From TrEMBL:
This is U6 snRNA-associated Sm-like protein LSm7. The lineage of its organism: Eukaryota, Rhodophyta, Bangiophyceae, Galdieriales, Galdieriaceae. InterPro entries: Lsm7 (IPR017132), Lsm7/SmG-like (IPR044641), LSM_dom_sf (IPR010920), Sm (IPR047575), Sm_dom_euk/arc (IPR001163). The keyword Nucleus applies. PANTHER family: SMALL NUCLEAR RIBONUCLEOPROTEIN (PTHR10553), U6 SNRNA-ASSOCIATED SM-LIKE PROTEIN LSM7 (PTHR10553:SF5).
Length: 108
């Protein structure tokens, strides 16, 4: 599959979207969405509006009592299209690590 067919037939050399996802093509990425949802999958394509196509997508489920925390539970989604207007961030799974929030205080 050529680069143009993966990007909906549009050239990637012209005006680019708000974020450059070309470096993540065929790489497993985490995608954070408005509302706090998080999905991981292999980036297979995108369009000029940065709508993403993820393959083998998995949603990390959130704690029902604290929607800002994810749990170890996952939901397999398969092939999905994520609208660019819903994106908060896109980053690779490899090389990403969770760190402790230094501003979070322990609840008593």
């Amino acid at each position: 599959m050529t680069s143009q067919s993966r990007t909906g037939g549009h050239s990637t050399s012209g005006r680019s979207g708000a974020i450059d996802v070309s470096k993540y093509l065929d790489v497993r990425v985490y995608v954070r969405l408005l509302g706090g949802r998080q999905v991981s999958g292999i980036l297979r394509g995108w369009d000029p509006l940065v709508n993403l196509v993820l393959d083998e997508a998995v949603e990390q489920l959130r704690d029902p009592e604290d929607p800002y925390k994810t749990t170890d539970k996952e939901r397999k989604l398969g092939l999905v299209v994520i609208r660019g207007t819903s994106l908060v961030s896109v980053y690779p799974v490899e090389g990403a690590e969770e760190i402790v929030n230094p501003f979070e205080t322990a609840s008593s």
